[in-house]
Design brief:
By secondary structure, this protein is of the alpha/beta class. The chain has one domain: Rossmann fold (3-Layer(aba) Sandwich), CATH 3.40.50.880. The protein has five helices and twelve strands. The termini are far apart. The protein binds glutamine. The site of glutamine has 11 residues, from helix 4.
Length: about 210
């Protein structure tokens, strides 16, 4: 079987550290700068950076349409920090998003006094704590029942998964650990070819319980 190739969106932000981590877990990596580069990928990482800047840069090509189609056709989409913002269904303050993760997310939600910090995220499904750097990080304000919490910080969800979508509010790529990238890579290998389009949840959302 051909090796799975993972794409790392390379328009803006912390993409090269993601590429290094994916290579270290044995995946082929392609940095993605054009919609046409998505062809043949098993998954795509949308890195952290600044979501407003990313949105501006994405106006040059039909990125939203292409990423939704990529997901519908079986691709895994992962996002860290600004990437998680872009994947969510609703963003506060309001801004456009892909809406592939049934979550409400608030930008820059830790306040100025803790703009940036490093912490161990409790993630038993990933084999134990995962180190993460939180940089002007967002917070999930609500999650719909279809969303599985994979990692918590002080009881609060910071790493979640819904089907083929994975979102972390922090930067795992800026630490030594590779568990997060292995997790994304395994999902990309496993779900290759699964074609179930995303239908937004109709159930009421729940507040994350710390
Ligand atoms: N604060 C950024 C935003 O709103 C996210 C920060 C990050 O990706 N490290 O997009």
């Amino acid at each position: 079987m051909a090796a799975t190739t993972i794409g790392v969106l390379a328009l803006q932000g912390a993409f090269s550290a993601h590429s290094t981590s994916f290579r270290e877990v044995g995946l082929k990596v392609r940095e993605i700068r054009r919609v046409s580069d998505l062809e043949g990928l098993g998954g795509l990482m949308i890195p952290g950076g600044e979501s407003t800047t990313l949105l501006n840069l994405m106006q040059d090509e039909p990125w939203f349409e292409a990423l939704r189609r990529f997901h519908d056709e079986g691709g895994v989409l992962a996002g860290t920090c600004a990437g998680a913002i872009l994947l969510s269904r609703e963003v506060r303050p309001r801004q456009p998003s892909l809406g592939l993760l049934d979550a409400i997310i608030e930008r820059n939600a830790y306040g100025r006094q803790v703009d940036s910090f490093e912490a161990a995220v409790d993630a038993p499904a990933l084999g134990g704590p995962v180190d993460g750097v939180f940089i002007r990080a967002p917070r999930f304000q609500a999650l719909w029942p279809e969303v599985e919490v994979v990692g918590r910080l002080a009881g609060e969800p910071v790493l979640v998964r819904q089907g083929r979508v994975i979102a972390a509010t922090f930067h795992p790529e800026l630490t030594q650990g590779l568990a997060f990238h292995r997790y994304v890579g395994d999902l990309a290998r496993k779900t290759k070819g699964a074609r179930t389009p995303h239908r937004p949840s109709r159930k009421p959302p729940a507040q994350p319980t710390p």
